[in-house]
Amino acid sequence: MVRSLLLAGCAFGMAAMTTAADARILDPAKAEDALEIGKRTQCGIGDQPAVMHWSGKIYARVQGEPDRHLFDGEGMNIRRCVPVSDPKRGEGYRMVSREIMLFTDPRTGAILREWKNPWTGETVEVMHIANDPVNMRPNFPLDADGKPVPPMTLKRMGEWVLMPLEVPLFYPNPLAGAYQDYVGNQYHAMEIFDFVARADELLDTRHPTAYPAVSWVRLSDWMPWMKMGGRQGQIVFNAMGAKLKSYDELPKLLKDEIAASYPDYTAAPPADDQRPNATTWTEFKKKIDTERAARGPAAAQPAGHP
């Protein structure tokens, strides 16, 4: 879900120590201020990590069928921001993060370990979303040509600032072969983030950061662990959440599962993390490849392979 942030250095520390005499109102039409607004939306104070939490419902959409409420979801992202510098693009920041989303039973709220696929009748193991890392490219006030980055989309409504962000995704599916340009199977999704923040927190530098609420919608292919094969349809996530003031504010369900199964997710990745990003699809491929390797050479071949 939401992308990773990097840990701070002196530049962030100075921003967090703004005095009343130095305070000002940020102008989103100015490239440097727009960058600061983005940082205040996503990052923690100084070198402290930031935690995003969200929860919501997950539906199946299949042509010719009513939509089905398959799961509920409970998720978090822990990130940090570090300053970066470029001779042409100026002073910016980069974000590094990890994120988890648990699939839960809509009736009981319990974390699902197995799920009976209503289309195939097969019971499959549930693989929760646990992506480490989810890092962003550096953000700067200037583009590669040294020109100001276009102003961010903000809408002021009284004491609130609205920040919509649509992220269309279309790239080779890690679970498919090398001929996707010819036969399809690219990963195709859209993620929509709508942030809402108090204007005074977001724009007045007397506040060291902001704590926005966020709506998250994702339309994507089926989760690979659902074992849907080539069946037509997609999965729709609809969740709401907020940036929290500490990890301790997460729901007990999430904290208990992280402690038991994902202990690294109590902290953000290191500031200099250069690992390639993880997705559900890359992590599922690793899982399947490991299981096949453990079963021996014959298991490495797909069913029906000559």
TrEMBL record:
<keyword id="KW-0732">Signal</keyword>
<feature type="compositionally biased region" description="Basic and acidic residues">
    <location>
        <begin position="283"/>
        <end position="294"/>
    </location>
</feature>
<protein>
    <recommendedName>
        <fullName>DUF1838 domain-containing protein</fullName>
    </recommendedName>
</protein>
<feature type="signal peptide">
    <location>
        <begin position="1"/>
        <end position="20"/>
    </location>
</feature>
<dbReference type="Pfam" id="PF08894">
    <property type="entry name" value="DUF1838"/>
</dbReference>
<dbReference type="InterPro" id="IPR014990">
    <property type="entry name" value="DUF1838"/>
</dbReference>
<feature type="compositionally biased region" description="Low complexity">
    <location>
        <begin position="295"/>
        <end position="306"/>
    </location>
</feature>
<feature type="region of interest" description="Disordered">
    <location>
        <begin position="265"/>
        <end position="306"/>
    </location>
</feature>
